[in-house]
Amino acid sequence: MSDEWVLSSPLITHHSELIIPEAFVPAKNQDLHGNVPDTASVALLLIDVINDLDFDGGERLLESALPMARRIADLKRRAKRAGIPAVYVNDNYGRWQSDFTRLVEHVRGDGTRGKPIADLLLPEEDDYFVLKPKHSGFYSTTLDTLLDYLGARTLILTGMAGNICVLFTANDAYMRDFHLVVPADCVASPDPTDNEYALRQMRTWLKADITPSTELDFAALLGRAGGRSTARAPARSAARRNGTDGRRAATATPRRAGKRR
Q1: Cα 27 from Cα 219, distance rounded (Å)
Q2: Cα–Cα dist 80/174, whole Å
Q3: What is the CA radius of gyration of the chain?
Q4: Which terminus of the chain has a lower count of CB atoms within 10 Å, N or C?
């Protein structure tokens, strides 16, 4: 495990705000001091994939999560080739002093049940990270800020559990007027019946596209979302000044223009 993976930003509580249809463009600090150097109308979210699965039902979840992880790994490779950035949205497991580095080290280094999944989906240098304290990736986190600076309007949601954290994140994303894609083969729940029900709910009520990952057309997604994608290598000099050494995370929650309170 590299000691370079550092999450410098704390969990920040802020008002949820209604995003207007046009993509937000900050008036200044357009790359959030070097921490968000990309512009991408589509973003890939990996929800709770760094997970020790140390809970009741974790062994059962592993059965469906392993094939899910293989599909997400392939989806992530294809997405990044298309210029779509990956954002790890991960639970902090109630450890308010923890960071993403320690979570990865724990899951991979302590022989946990979730190690095979973390090995398949090991974060890369140009990935983004957001720690969450509750079920939704938006609740009391910097995810809103990160997506604003990216200019994302379409979110591809993957991860586990499909009937809890993926569903809660999808609900909050829908209320913020994001277009949702939830590939049916890239989410997993302890009970497959619950997973199928959650997918139906997201398709019916949140207007999510649940097309399997192997059939997703990234060119079409980018076209519908505005076609903006300029993902590139991290801005190393600025990131190092902020203590992240190229690992990307929002470091503040600025006042955001173009929003209604």
Answers
A1: 29
A2: 24
A3: 17
A4: C
Q: Are 121 and 49 in contact, with CB atoms under 8 Å apart?
A: yes
Residue 216 amino acid letter? L
Q: Which domains does the chain have, with CATH numbers?
A: 30-255 (3.40.50.850)
The DSSP code for 40 is B
pLDDT at 177: 96
Q: Is the dihedral of CA 118, 168, 244, 33 positive or negative?
A: positive
pLDDT value, residue 94 = 60
Pair 141, 164: CB distance under 8 Å = no
Residue 39 DSSP SS3: coil
- d(C-alpha 200, C-alpha 48), whole Å: 21
Which residue in this structure is represented by tokens 């190092």?
A: 240
pLDDT value of position 224: 84
Q: Quick count: other Cβ atoms within 10 Å of Cβ 223?
A: 11
3-class SS at 158? Answer: strand
Strand partners, 160: 188
**Phi and psi (nearest 5°) for 74?**
-70, -40
**pTM of the predicted model over 0.70:** yes
pLDDT of the residue at 171 = 98
